[in-house]
Structures are given as C-alpha cells and as structure tokens.
Amino acid sequence: MTTIRRVELYHVRIPLPDTFYPSWIPGFPQRENRFDLIRIITDDGVEGWSAGQAMRTSVRA
Question: How does pLDDT run along the chain (61 residues), one tens digit per residue?
C-alpha cells in the first residue's frame, strides 16, 4: 500500500507588470497573481503537483 510521505505547500505571489481586471470578479483589479502550489510525495517515490487560486484573505503576507 502506498503511503504519503510528505506534503509541501507553497504560497506563490507573482507581481503583474500592469493591473489586470478579471471579468469573473468585477471591481477587484489584480496587481499580482496569487496561488497555492501543493506537492505530494509518496513513500515509493511517486510525486504529484496541484495548484489552486489563493484568495486575498487566505494568506497574510
């Protein structure tokens, strides 16, 4: 049976060169791209990555 050996979580913030106005959240201009990056490693060496949107209140920088 495979067992998860390690989970790593990275909070990523990349400044944008210009302000971005996403149509899916009108009224909230974005000056950076923020997301959470997750890495999972099993005891037999299998590695997986996933990413998801980070909301402004999810991490205090």
Answer: 889 999 999 999 999 999 999 898 889 899 999 899 999 999 999 999 999 987 665 555 4
Architecture of domain 4-53: 2-Layer Sandwich (3.30)
DSSP notation for 10-49 = EEEEEEEEEEE--TTSTT--EEEEEEEEEEEEETTS-EEE
Domain range list for the chain: 4-53
CA-based Rg of the chain, rounded to a whole angstrom? Answer: 16
pTM of the model: 0.67
